[in-house]
Amino acid sequence: MDLKNLDEVPPFTTKDGSEIRELLAYRNSTIRNQSLAEARLPVGGATQEHYHPRAEEIYYITHGVGKIRIGGEIRELKAGDAIAIPPGRKHKLWNTGGEVLRLLCCCAPAYEHSDTIITEKDI
Fold it and tell me: Helix (H, G, I), strand (E, B), or coil: what is residue 104?
């Protein structure tokens, strides 16, 4: 059985600038076709706009508020919201609130730096 606790998983920074803790993926479990991670954006923080040629993503907001742009559409986000991001769609996430924005990220196939294409200059 693979059981991981968020407090015991070391963070790392993704290619788009997010701090994530990968809970389950092929790197640390028997899971082979997807990954589950928690991402955190500090107050006032944002990711770099990017897309994934192969992976589809689901974001689930657990704490805080923010906004997301997918393609040309911008939406406000709050805890309890789930967002679908198809492969190949440019997206960017901002923390617009007064606390750390925290979200669960599911990627299929699993997250890889090599599957992340940055489409803007440094934030």
Answer: strand
Residue type, 5: N
Phi first, then psi, for residue 94 (nearest 5°) are -125, 145
Reduced to 3 states (helix: H, G, I; strand: E, B; else coil), residue 76 is: strand
Is residue 104 within 8 A of residue 57, CB to CB? The reply is no
Fold of 20-118: Jelly Rolls (2.60.120)
Structure tokens at 97: 């609130």
Look at residue 44 and tell me whether its pLDDT is greater than 60.
Answer: yes
pTM: 0.93
Evaluate if residue 42 carries a pLDDT over 80: yes
Cβ pair 58, 87 in contact under 8 A: no
pLDDT tens figures, 51-90? 999 999 999 999 999 999 999 999 999 999 999 999 999 9
Give the mean pLDDT of 103-107: 98
What is the separation of C-alpha 70 from the centre of its chain, rounded to a whole number of angstroms? Answer: 13
On whether the CB atoms of residues 85 and 73 are closer than 8 A, the answer is: no
Q: Where are the domains of the chain?
A: 20-118
